[in-house]
Amino acid sequence: MLSVRLIPLAPLLKANLKQSLQASSRLGPITFSRQFNISTKKRNSYIANNAGPATLAPMNDATKFDSTFLKQFKTSELVSFMLIGICTLNKPILNLCIKLFPYVPMPVIKALVYKIYCGGETIEEVKTTGERLTERGINNMMISLTIEACNGNDNIDPQYIVSETQKSVEEILIPHTLSIIENSGKSINSIPAGYVALKPTGFTKNAAAVLKNFDSPEYKDSFDELVANASAICKTIFDANKNLAKQYPERTAPFVVGVIDAEKYDLQPGVYELQRRLYKQFNPVNSPVSVVGTLQMYLSGSADLLTKEEQLAKDQNYRVGMKLVRGAYIHSEKDRANVIHKTKTDTDNNYNSGITYCIKSILDDQLNKSPIGHLVVASHNADSLKLATDLVNKSSPENSSRANVCLGQLLGMADSITYDLIKKDNVENVIKYVPWGPPLETKEYLLRRLEENGDAVKNDNGLPLVKAAFTTLMSRIFA
Ligand SMILES: Cc1cc2nc3c(=O)[nH]c(=O)nc-3n(C[C@H](O)[C@H](O)[C@H](O)COP(=O)(O)OP(=O)(O)OC[C@H]3O[C@@H](n4cnc5c(N)ncnc54)[C@H](O)[C@@H]3O)c2cc1C
Fold first, then answer.
1. Which of 144, 211, 326 has the most ligand 1 atoms within 8 A of CB, as the residue to mutate?
2. pTM for this structure?
3. Atom 29, ligand 1: which residue's CA is nearest?
4. Could you read off the pLDDT of 64-80 as tens digits, one per residue?
5. 103-120 pLDDT, tens per residue?
6. Is 3.10.20.30 the CATH classification of the domain at 16-64+126-436?
7. Is the C or the N end of the chain the one with fewer CB within 10 Å?
8. Buried b vs exposed e over 72-93: b needs ≥16 C-beta within 10 Å?
């Protein structure tokens, strides 16, 4: 039996919407922060090429709760939103709910809130979730089998994780992506790829120690096993991309992509080495990128790291794909003062500089030659999403590299922002991160979502959400 701690994105999204909204109201210049250590020449050429407004206009009026997005949900889901709103009315109520949550039987949870945040327990259920997302204009997913062991849990079965993940690529992602390509009526290069999140701690026993000590002889075999397991999945993805490219030669972007998740700081050296070995194997020049790694831009060394990854790719003749996140482990990072940017603004500037740099590299090249070949802007921050959208929209609609940039948010989180991107800004390349897997683990995932919602009590949760869901429900009943 799998004993597992769920959600790779762990303390994730701690900062969430509340900070996003605060950030929107104090928008500063999109600067090329000194932390982002690209050459002065390149940096100046950026600024020249991106000479837009010095500040970004907010994507929408972030201080006002716009409930339009709720119309997309079923009646039962509106009831779930009301419940989430009640649980997040204020901190004491939320804390009580968090305490009681572990004792609530799974069938009750499944009936009440499960579908908002989770893609399902089985492959069939995840497929249905994908179809529902398509109805909302969300043209692909990043699926994640939520089994991991970053805190030293040794009861995982890496082989099971590998085979289930391969199965999910073949039975969910590929058919889903092809169905969108065939049925959406959109240009083939405007459809985002299907992504599968790969958690490095799921690929060997005792993974935390292995990743921390990947270069010590004692852990060599275990690290090689971890790399081999991740490679097996990436090979499935790489082969699928090769075969599908023959079927659809006009597509520039990959059809499916493996995404390596980032972990806590002390595990990252092993994760970076894993990413590099996978890039070398599966991201040759002149081909779309099949493997995307993750960089946490809250790390003060992340700009240098991005430069280093690009240089390594150039020197060794491969391509890199990047998922840029701000970073989920700020609250648990022991050495926070030394490894994480001093302020949220520094992180924001660094993040925005990073996505600008990657998007520009990608859009400037339509022949699959640039060292940075693919970007996932994984964020709920309305300003970063607006920046990415503006940069992509500045390029010609005919630019076939557009599908190499995509925006990702978690299922059930920042739904109003996702809605605005699609309906108001006509963004095509949006995906949702869809966790799926055994119900026991899903319960832990849901608990985390509840905890994270606490940070947003005053924004799009709490009373405004209760009122909005109730009004939408009533208008539906009495329409
Ligand atoms: C699709 C997807 C995949 C993800 N994958 C990963 C992953 O693999 N690994 C991972 O670690 N995270 C991952 N995350 C989570 C991500 O790192 C963020 O925690 C989360 O998205 C919140 O940041 P934001 O960009 O949405 O924006 P915001 O809500 O504007 O930013 C919040 C973030 O800012 C940073 N921050 C907050 N306060 C400060 C401060 N005082 N000083 C410096 N920095 C500060 C923190 O990183 C915090 O999480 C993922 C998120 C998504 C949507």
1. 326
2. 0.85
3. 16
4. 667 889 999 999 999 99
5. 998 888 888 888 888 999
6. no
7. C
8. bbeeebbbbbbbbbbbbbeeee
